[in-house]
Design a protein that fits this description.
By secondary structure, the protein is of the alpha/beta class. The protein has two domains: about 35-290, Aspartate Aminotransferase, domain 2 (3-Layer(aba) Sandwich); about 290-395, Aspartate Aminotransferase, domain 1 (Alpha-Beta Complex), CATH 3.90.1150.10. Helix content is about 40%, strand content about 15%. The chain has 13 helices and 17 strands. The strands form five sheets. The protein has a seven-stranded mixed beta sheet, sandwiched between helices. The radius of gyration is 22 Å and the shape is globular. It starts with 11 loop residues before the first strand and ends with a helix. The structure holds 4'-deoxy-4'-aminopyridoxal-5'-phosphate. The site of 4'-deoxy-4'-aminopyridoxal-5'-phosphate has 12 residues, from helix 3.
């Protein structure tokens, strides 16, 4: 699928053709994204929102058109519900800070899950240093899927928000997010969805889901680094205070008192990365030009094939993927081979995989290991690359 759109894929690494299987960490960028950003730097660049001059207007138009692209991409009701951030991490920190300040009292609770990325654990712990709130953790079953019954039991009169990953970046498990939101809403509890790993692989419809907050990163969906999104329902964004202060986010400023700008600017202090928002919009165009049906068919086929082939390797232990194929993220270990050794030796064969705890240490501990090797696929990966991975693993295993 369109590999020629991604120049980096033709690189040779240690004398081998690159096999890039670290897409859950970040995806490669198509030419159209990079070209659009270069073109804007060369021909349009000017700071947005503040200028009366032509270039500033043009840059502002591109920036706001990108916001509209994101709105359409996730089917938000209004573009004012799309906050540009640096990424998923900043989006979750924003909610933990601002929602925590306005909507949580000492003794109130947030529910997260055992399969969260650190970026959906630590912001709540930082909130705890300012306000004694409780963090309740929904466990996973031995099959590495979320224990929904346990989630229902964890809900208490003090639960103020449920903050949960849509897709695990370690296991590829797709959590039943619509069901979680239904359960939460039956108790009048809002839900923050960490969509970092779902946004690149499946359509998101925030209105159909009735999600309260959704966070995702541009760089994991073929867009540039340094840009991400926080979607929030208007009623929540109106209610919670700004996360950062500065230019753009104000109405009137005196030394005694400041009023805030309207949505979404109330949450966008300082000069935004308006070049990256253009890149993000082109990444959305790229995804849409191929279409979700095609992308999902290809990625599911790859994942099924990879699971099948990996399972033929002696002593392999694959984590998760028991209930269904899941997302194109596969974590494994081979016998007693240290994940770091395996990753390093695969790199010598030009194969890029990730090793370690994947910023999800509590989950890794729950799996009873110190780390895993993770192969994660994107729309440009091929079955041939999976064959190279499998033979690479066999070759490395035989050395031990
Ligand atoms: N949540 C999940 C599930 C992730 O996989 C990641 C990235 N590995 C993040 C949050 C953080 O994303 P970012 O580093 O782009 O802010």
């Amino acid at each position: 699928m369109n590999r020629e759109d991604f120049p980096i894929l033709t690189r040779n690494i240690h004398g081998h053709s690159l096999v890039y299987l670290d897409n859950a960490a970040t995806t490669q960028k198509p030419r159209s994204v990079v070209d659009a950003m270069t073109e804007e730097y060369y021909n349009v660049n000017a700071n947005v929102h503040r200028g009366v001059h032509f270039l500033s207007q043009q840059a502002t138009d591109l920036h706001e058109a990108a916001r509209e692209s994101v709105r359409r991409f996730i089917n938000a009701r209004s573009a004012s519900e799309i906050i540009f951030t640096r990424g998923t991490t900043e989006s979750i920190n924003l909610v933990a800070y601002s929602f925590g300040q306005e909507c949580m009292e000492p003794g109130d609770e947030v529910i997260v899950t055992e399969m969260e990325h650190h970026s959906n654990i630590v912001p709540w712990q930082l909130l705890q240093t300012r306000k004694p709130i409780g963090i309740r953790v929904c466990p996973i079953t031995d099959d590495a899927v979320l224990d929904i019954q346990a989630l229902e039991k964890l809900i208490s009169p003090r639960t103020r928000i449920i903050s949960v990953a849509h897709v695990s970046n370690v296991l590829g498990t797709v959590n039943p997010i619509a069901e979680i939101i239904n359960i939460a809403h039956a108790h009048n509890i809002p839900v923050l969805v960490d969509a970092a790993q779902s946004a690149p692989h499946m359509p998101l419809d925030v209105q159909a889901l009735d999600a309260d907050f959704v966070a995702f990163s541009g760089h994991k969906m073929y867009g540039p680094t340094g840009i991400g999104v926080l979607y929030g329902k208007e009623k929540w964004l109106e209610r919670i205070p700004p996360y950062m202060g500065g230019g753009e986010m104000i109405g009137k400023v005196t030394f005694e008192h400041t009023t805030f700008n309207s949505l979404p600017y109330k949450f966008e202090a300082g000069t935004p990365d308006y070049i990256a928002t253009t890149g993000l919009a082109r990444a959305i165009d790229y995804i849409e030009s191929i279409g979700w049906e095609e992308i999902q068919k290809h990625e599911h086929e790859l994942t099924r094939y990879a699971l099948e082939q990996l399972q033929t390797i002696p002593d392999i232990h694959i984590y998760g993927h028991k209930a269904d194929t899941g997302d194109p993220v596969i974590s494994f270990n081979i016998g007693a081979i240290h994940h770091l050794d395996l990753g390093t030796l695969l790199d010598q064969l030009g194969i890029a995989v990730r090793t370690g705890h994947h910023c999800a240490e509590p989950l890794i501990h729950r799996l009873g290991v110190e780390g895993t090797v993770r192969a994660s696929f994107a729309l440009y990966n091929t079955k041939e690359e999976i064959d190279i991975l499998v033979s690479g693993i066999r070759r490395v295993s035989s050395m031990f």
